[in-house]
Design brief:
Structural class: alpha+beta
Helix content: 25-40%
Distance between the termini: 17 Å
Strand content: 15-25%
Shape: globular
Keywords: Signal
Number of helices: 11
Oligomer: single chain
Number of strands: 13
C-alpha cells in the first residue's frame, strides 16, 4: 500500500475527532510489561499509557485532552454540570489560534446538542470528565475518562453490571440503526467498566476490562518514544497515530499542545526506525519545515514557525509556535493527510 493510501485510511479513522471551530471568547484565564512499558506517573500522556491494545490493529489513532487545561488555554470557562451552552463554548473554543479540541469519539456526535441525553444513557459526560484518552481503529475503540463518575452513576443510568461490566446495545461490534441514541449514534453496542479514577467505555467487554486494569498494552517501543517526547511539554491536548507501512514496518507520529504565556505552542514528534535514522533526518526535517511547502502548495513558513528541531533517540522533535494567521490545528491536519510527504524514509 502507498503512503498516500495509508494516509487516507488514517484520515477515515480521524473523522471521529474534531479540531474545534468558531471564535475564542473571553474567560478565566517504566516498568516493562509483556505488552510494552507500563504506565507511570499522573500526567495526561500517562493516561494514554493505560490504554489496551486493540485486536488486529496496527493502524490506530489516539486522542487525549485535559478539559480544564483546554479551557484555560483557550480562555473559556470549564463546562458547568448540565450547562449545554458552556459545553458548546468549550468545544468550539479553538477558533483560529487556540488549542484544538480533540474529543474522544465516544463522547462526540455531529454536534453536542444532545449531550444531556448522552449523560442520561451512559452516566458519564464531558461535564463529569476531567481528562480523557481514547484509541480508535474501527470497529474497535476504547476511551478512559477520569472524573467525577463511577459505579453509582453507571448503575443509575444503565442498571446492574455483569461481572464488572455494564452493557448497552446488542451484541458486541453489532450496529443497529433502528436503535440509534445520543450515546450510540449508529446503534452500536457499548461496554463500560470502572477504572481507578473514572470510567472506561469500549466496543467490547474485554477492552473495557483491560482499560480498567490499566496495564497499558497499547504502548510498544515505537509509540513509547513518541509519547515520551510529547510528555516532556506537559500538554493539555494531543494526538498520536501509528500506521502500518507493510514491509516498511510501523510508523508512529504525534502532536501535542501547551500554552506558553499567552501563546499556544505545539510539539510535533516524528518516528524513525532507529536512533541513527532520526539523527540523520533532523536537519532534513528542519529544512523541510523552514524552506519546503505543504501538499496544499503553501510554504510551511506561512503555516507555522519552527523554534527547534532535535533528534531524541529514534524520534525527531519539532517545537513550533504560531504567529499571525498561523493556526495550531495545522499539526493535526498534517497528521491527517500530509504525513506521507514528510521526510520519513524507512530503512
Amino acid at each position: 500500500m502507498t503512503r498516500r493510501g495509508i494516509a487516507s485510511i488514517v484520515l477515515l479513522l480521524l473523522l471521529v475527532t474534531a479540531c474545534g471551530g468558531g471564535g475564542r471568547s473571553d474567560g478565566p484565564e517504566a516498568e516493562e510489561t509483556a505488552g510494552g512499558p507500563a504506565p507511570t506517573g499522573d500526567s495526561l500522556v500517562d493516561l494514554v499509557r493505560t490504554l489496551p491494545e486493540l485486536p488486529d490493529a496496527d493502524t490506530f489513532v489516539v486522542t487525549f485532552g485535559d478539559v480544564e487545561g483546554i479551557a484555560t488555554a483557550n480562555a473559556v470557562d470549564v463546562p458547568t454540570d448540565g450547562d449545554l451552552p458552556s459545553l458548546l463554548d468549550w468545544s468550539l473554543s479553538a477558533g483560529a489560534d487556540g488549542v484544538p479540541v480533540l474529543l474522544p469519539s465516544t463522547l462526540q456526535e455531529v454536534n453536542l446538542n444532545r449531550h444531556q441525553e448522552l449523560e442520561a444513557e451512559l452516566g458519564v459526560s464531558l461535564w463529569s470528565t476531567t481528562r480523557y484518552a481514547e484509541v480508535a481503529a474501527p470497529p474497535y475503540r476504547v476511551a478512559v475518562l477520569d472524573g467525577d463518575h463511577g459505579e453509582a452513576e453507571l448503575t443509575e443510568a444503565i442498571g446492574e453490571p455483569d461481572d464488572g461490566v455494564w452493557a448497552l446495545g446488542g451484541d458486541e461490534l453489532e450496529v443497529d440503526l433502528a436503535n440509534r441514541t445520543a450515546a450510540r449514534p449508529l446503534g452500536e453496542a457499548l461496554r463500560l467498566a470502572t477504572t481507578q479514577d473514572g470510567v472506561a467505555i469500549a466496543s467490547t467487554a474485554t477492552l473495557a476490562r483491560e482499560a480498567a486494569d490499566a496495564e497499558g498494552s497499547l504502548v510498544d517501543d515505537d509509540l513509547d518514544e513518541v509519547l515520551t517526547a510529547l510528555d516532556e511539554v506537559d500538554p493539555v491536548a494531543g494526538v498520536a497515530i501509528r500506521t502500518d507501512l507493510g514491509d516498511e514496518g510501523l510508523l508512529a507520529n504525534g502532536a501535542a499542545y501547551v500554552v506558553d504565556g499567552d501563546a499556544v505552542v505545539g510539539r510535533l514528534v516524528l518516528g524513525y526506525p532507529d536512533d541513527e535514522d532520526a539523527t540523520a533526518a533532523a536537519s532534513e526535517v528542519e529544512e523541510y519545515f523552514t524552506d519546503g511547502k505543504s501538499l496544499s502548495g503553501l510554504p510551511w513558513s506561512d503555516l507555522l514557525t519552527v523554534e527547534d528541531v532535535t533528534a531524541e533517540g529514534s524520534v525527531v522533535v519539532v517545537d513550533l509556535s504560531f504567529a499571525g494567521d498561523q493556526r495550531p490545528a495545522v499539526l493535526v491536519q498534517m497528521l491527517l493527510g500530509n504525513v506521507q510527504d514528510l521526510p520519513q524514509a524507512r530503512s
